[in-house]
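Can't paste images in this forum, so I'm doing it all in text. The chain is below; anyone willing to post the predicted structure tokens underneath?
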Amino acid sequence: MLDLESPIWETLEGGYRVVYDPRPALLALERGENVAAAWDELWNELHHQGDVGEASYAAVPHLVRIYAAGGAARYDTYAIVEVVEECRLAGNNPPLPDYLREPYEAAWRQLAELALRDLPLTDKLEIVSCILAVMAMSKGLSGLARIAAKFDESEREEMIRLYFQA
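Text version of the structure:
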């Protein structure tokens, strides 16, 4: 995991393809300070219209670590990590750098384990959908993950109805 004290953070680009340092927002989440503003910033800066950057990849292990310690909202953690991975796989974003690969992949393994823990504990459909998206993505089922993450149940039912109608 990229140390929060590392000067590398000051060189990483976010979703706008400009340098973005997410450390203040990550620290705010960790401390439970201005959490809504921190999430707004992370959503706006780590991901923009399908674009992510190395700052997005570097933030993922910290987001999972903070969530695992009880310091982040479930929906936002599952959703933003899934979006970063979806965008990474799209092919039009920077590749995952070698120095971030191990912590990024470890964070994904940990989030998949947390998803299995959390799924029976929630009845909120938007959280269930994000958890299922993370579980699918962690198993390489990116299409299923996108459907779980991007569509609500009525839209998924409509897709099924239209597909099987023919």
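Residues 116 and 135 are 8 Å apart (CA to CA). The chain has one domain: 7-165.
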